[in-house]
Design a protein that fits this description.
This protein has about 160 residues and is mainly alpha-helical. Helices cover about 75% and strands about 0% of the residues. It is built from seven helices and no strands.
Length: about 160
């Protein structure tokens, strides 16, 4: 296009060519920033996966539950307090076992009643195993239910 139209309107083509060069230079900087951000994300994922594997958790099921618990309960985690990483590992394994059983029916993903039963059971277990209140357990159970629905296939492979 540029070489074909250069003869007919050289001023316009030079302006467009200059704008194109400026856009490419600007986007190149954005691509570099994007590549850097993606590199940081990959590093974070590798570190996160390494931690999950070091805890001897299945990364796709128990590990995902552990991540939810760790994120939601970060303010209560301590080395020697009531909620520890070891407790979260144990609870993650137990909850994964419950999810594995409850997502078994072929129609689980479409059945609101089965999902509600799982949400209630998760909330009950979280309250009992972690000794936290209903209000604190509710959003955790809801997030774990979304995980169970989205990752049903992974839980069934356990």
């Amino acid at each position: 296009f540029v070489s074909t139209n250069l003869r007919s309107d050289p001023g316009r083509i030079r302006r467009l060519s200059g704008r194109l060069d400026a856009l490419l230079a600007e986007l190149d900087e954005q691509w570099r920033e994007l590549a850097d951000a993606l590199g940081e994300l990959v590093d974070e994922i590798v570190v996160d996966d390494t931690e999950i594997l070091a805890l001897d958790l299945d990364p796709k099921t128990e590990g995902e539950i552990y991540r939810v618990l760790e994120k939601r309960l970060a303010h209560e985690l301590s080395a020697h307090g009531r909620i520890t990483r070891d407790l979260l590992v144990d609870v993650s394994r137990r909850l994964a076992g419950i999810v594995e059983i409850e997502v078994g029916p072929p129609h689980f993903a479409e059945n609101g009643h089965l999902q509600e039963n799982l949400r209630k059971e998760l909330r009950r277990q979280i309250i009992g195993l972690l000794d936290i209140g209903r209000d604190a357990a509710r959003p955790i159970a809801e997030e774990l239910l979304r995980l169970a629905v989205a990752s049903r296939h992974d839980f069934l492979k356990q």
